[in-house]
Amino acid sequence: MVIEQQRADVFDGAALRADFPVFDRPHRSGKPLAFLDSAASAPKPRAVIDALSDAYGHHYANVHRGIYELSEDATARFEGARAAVARFIGAPSEREVVFVRNATEAINLVAYSWGRTNIRAGDLILSTEMEHHANLVPWQQLATETGATLEYVAITDDGRLDLDDLRRRLAREPKLLAINHVSNALGTINPVAEITQLAHDAGALVLLDAAQSVPHMPVSATELGIDFLALSGHKMLGPSGIGALWGRRALLEAMPPFMTGGSMISKVTLAGTTWAEVPLKFEAGTPAIAEAAGLAAAIGYLEGIGMAKVRAHERFLFERAWAALSDIGGVRLLGPASPDEHAAVISLVIDGIHPHDVATIFDGHGVAVRAGHHCAQPVMARYDLPATTRASFYVYNDLDDIERLTDAIHATQRLFGTA
Ligand code: PMP
Question: Residue 66 — very low, low, confident or very high, per pLDDT cuts 50/70/90?
Answer without folding.
Answer: confident
